[in-house]
Amino acid sequence: GLPSAKDEIMTIFESILAGKIPAKKVWENEYVLAFEDIHPQASIHILFIPKTKTENLHELASSSNQDQQLVHLFRAIADYAQAQGLDKKGYRIVSNIGAQAGQSVFYTHIHLLAGEVLGAFGRARS
Length: 126
Ligand code: 5GP
What we know:
- This protein is an alpha+beta fold.
- The chain contains 5 helices and 5 strands; from the N terminus they run ααβββαααββ.
- A 5-stranded antiparallel beta sheet has the order 1-2-3-5-4, with helices on one face.
- A hairpin with a 7-residue loop joins strand 2 and strand 3.
- The radius of gyration is 15 Å and the shape is globular.
- It binds guanosine-5'-monophosphate.
- Guanosine-5'-monophosphate binds next to strand 2.
């Protein structure tokens, strides 16, 4: 189809993947890159991104040739968490999708939060 305005905007995570802006990488393989969030919400706050561009889980899940990306994304998180001992200590994974969740970067990513006892989440603070 015709390119939409969103397609023409290079997201910050594409710039990181392209090496155009720096990031503190913590894990990488052929399919997935993991790096520290620039505004950490816990003492460990990592972002996991597939190396193939999609906007969110729905775009990632809707295309059958993305099946391997989905598997590799979650396997990367599990492997990283296990290597860090987080499977024993506990951790949280989150993906903000769309307006009501406050998604701010329109490139599929999973947040991993850990390293301390985490607060409740869900409703906006008043
Ligand atoms: P979202 O709000 O879409 O769920 O998550 C986007 C995340 O990307 C935020 O937690 C934000 O701190 C992080 N972020 C935004 N810009 C950058 C950047 O340039 N580098 C890194 N490492 N993280 C970023």
